[in-house]
Automatic annotation (TrEMBL):
Keyword Cytoplasm: no
Annotated Pfam families: NADHdh
Subcellular location as annotated: Cell membrane; Membrane
NCBIfam families associated with the record: PRK06076.1-2, PRK06076.1-4
Entry function: NDH-1 shuttles electrons from NADH, via FMN and iron-sulfur (Fe-S) centers, to quinones in the respiratory chain. The immediate electron acceptor for the enzyme in this species is believed to be ubiquinone. Couples the redox reaction to proton translocation (for every two electrons transferred, four hydrogen ions are translocated across the cytoplasmic membrane), and thus conserves the redox energy in a proton gradient. This subunit may bind ubiquinone.
Organism per entry: Terrabacter aeriphilus
Lineage: superkingdom: Bacteria
Annotated region described as Disordered, given as residue ranges: 419-470
Zinc-finger found in the keyword field: no
Subunit text: NDH-1 is composed of 14 different subunits. Subunits NuoA, H, J, K, L, M, N constitute the membrane sector of the complex.
Protein's name according to its UniProt entry: NADH-quinone oxidoreductase subunit H
Catalytic activity: a quinone + NADH + 5 H(+)(in) = a quinol + NAD(+) + 4 H(+)(out)
Sequence similarity: Belongs to the complex I subunit 1 family.
Length: 470
């Protein structure tokens, strides 16, 4: 939250652009309730469709048909799976904390729906004679609300792992919590550039500011960082490290079954739609048509119910990206993923935010002639842009060099021994490449010839006599 307030303070120092906000003056409470129910139904139907879509697309990528039995083209397969989850036995572990065990999936599922309330899915429409925007609500810090709700959703994950009373869910909950918190920082930093360009944190005003130019062009680096972080935020491949079956047996929801497991499943897919909707709103003009098309006929393509169509089309572009990544990339290693977030994404995004602040300040022209004064010298916009780009590239090059240097140092410091005893720790260990096995101590002891001593006993229990060899 402090990150967003800092960004709000930076944006507040700049002149605000004249972008109209959503007008809810003609929206009674029952119309707002209808819109909330409509958003809920929209997300539920979209979730049913995207699960079918994901299975069909990945099936095509792997040269298999995918679901094609229940309903036309297998469209009812997801509905059948949902009914199966409702009818399955709901098992609660004996050592689980019953109340927290039930509360965790509810938190994970409901928080995903709350974030969608501030997303404008269309323009102003008429509902039962009332002119209202296709948005449940809007506040001056709407984007911060999404980040705050996402932070609360982390509690569902960590509480699920802790309340299960098992080791593997606890490890999965801790791993997923660390992953989500780490990538929320980079995600929040990537959005600061949008606040600086639009001069607002209101989603409706950000959409209005993109009527002539989508922010994916001036804030291209922020868009790239956001796409990476939104995949990590939703625990999707190649970043589904909380569900690494090889080491965690399924992650924080290992002990869940029936509808409580389905709640986590639903929350994951709704979160995908939420982060994709936020990307559409902040970078792709939201519900607005592309500038060239909307310029032909604003009344037909620019707003109203047409906006819902454009918004849905952009949203499904991101959903296809999620599916494409899952079917194409392998799971990354956890330490590499965390190092990438903390040591690369966060520092380079900070440098990008500073660069955008200088560029935006030069464009607004604090001196009235689009020039900026730094250390007593006047710099043009082109100079500030070039210096900022060089700074970001230099930071990236320094990170790559540091990473390679650390890898070389680790390779030199940790050298495996040339000879190993496979039974040294009591259980067989296979040799690494370049190693050779030595004869185990147990085998050496077994092959030694026995030595006769005076302490040896006779079968009758009396001490054996020493033989006189003359």
């Amino acid at each position: 939250m402090s990150l967003g307030l800092t960004a709000y303070g930076m944006a507040a120092t700049l002149p605000l652009t004249e972008n109209p906000s959503a007008d809810f003056s003609d929206t009674p409470w029952w119309v707002a309730l209808i819109k909330a129910v409509g958003i809920f139904v929209y997300l539920l139907v979209s979730t049913l469709l995207v699960i079918w879509f994901e299975r069909r697309v990945i099936g095509r990528m792997q040269q298999r048909p995918g679901p094609n039995r229940n309903g036309p083209f297998g469209l009812l397969q997801t509905l059948a799976d949902g009914m199966k989850s409702m009818l399955k036995e709901d098992i609660t572990p004996a050592r689980a904390e019953k109340f927290i065990y039930t509360l965790a999936p509810l938190i994970a599922a409901t928080m995903a729906f709350v974030s969608f309330a501030i997303i404008p899915v269309g323009g102003t429409v008429s509902i039962f004679g009332h002119e209202t925007p296709l948005q449940v609500t809007d506040v001056p810090v709407s984007v911060l609300l999404v980040l705050a709700v996402a932070s609360v959703g982390v509690y569902g994950i960590v509480l699920a792992g802790w309340s299960s009373g098992s080791t593997y869910p606890l490890l999965g909950g801790l791993r997923s919590t660390a992953q989500v918190i780490s990538y929320e920082i980079a995600m929040g930093l990537s959005l600061v550039a949008i606040f600086l360009y639009s001069g607002s944190m209101s989603t409706s005003q950000i959409v209005s500011a993109q009527s002539s130019l989508w922010y994916i062009l001036p804030a291209f680096f922020s868009f790239a960082v956001y796409v990476i972080t939104m995949v990590g935020e939703t625990n999707r491949l190649p970043f589904d490290l909380a569900e690494g079956e090889g080491e965690l047996t399924g992650g924080f929801h290992t002990e869940y079954s029936s509808m409580r497991f389905a709640m986590f499943f639903l929350g994951e897919y709704v979160n995908m739609f939420t982060v994709a909707a936020l990307a559409t709103t902040l970078f792709l003009g939201g519900w607005q048509a592309p500038p060239l098309i909307s310029g032909i006929n604003d009344n037909m393509f620019g707003g109203g119910w047409w906006g819902l169509l454009w918004f849905t089309a952009k949203l499904w572009m991101f959903m296809f990206l999620f599916v494409w990544l899952r079917g194409s990339l392998p799971r990354v290693r956890y330490d590499q993923f965390m190092r990438f977030g903390w040591k690369f994404l966060i520092p380079i995004t900070l440098a990008w935010v500073v660069a955008v602040a200088f560029i935006r300040g030069a464009q607004l022209g604090f001196l009235g002639d689009s020039r900026l004064t730094i250390a007593g010298r006047e710099l043009s916009v082109a100079t500030v842009v070039i210096v900022s780009v060089i700074a970001v590239v230099a930071l990236a090059a320094a990170w790559v060099w540091d990473d390679k240097r650390a890898a070389r140092a680790a390779a030199e410091d940790v050298l495996p021994p040339e000879e190993i005893d496979p039974f040294e720790d009591g259980y067989p260990v296979p040799p690494l490449p370049g190693q050779r096995l030595v004869e185990p101590r147990q085998r050496l002891a077994a092959t030694r010839e026995p030595v006769l001593t005076t302490a040896s006993s006779s079968p009758t229990g009396a001490p054996a006599k020493e033989e006189d060899h003359g």
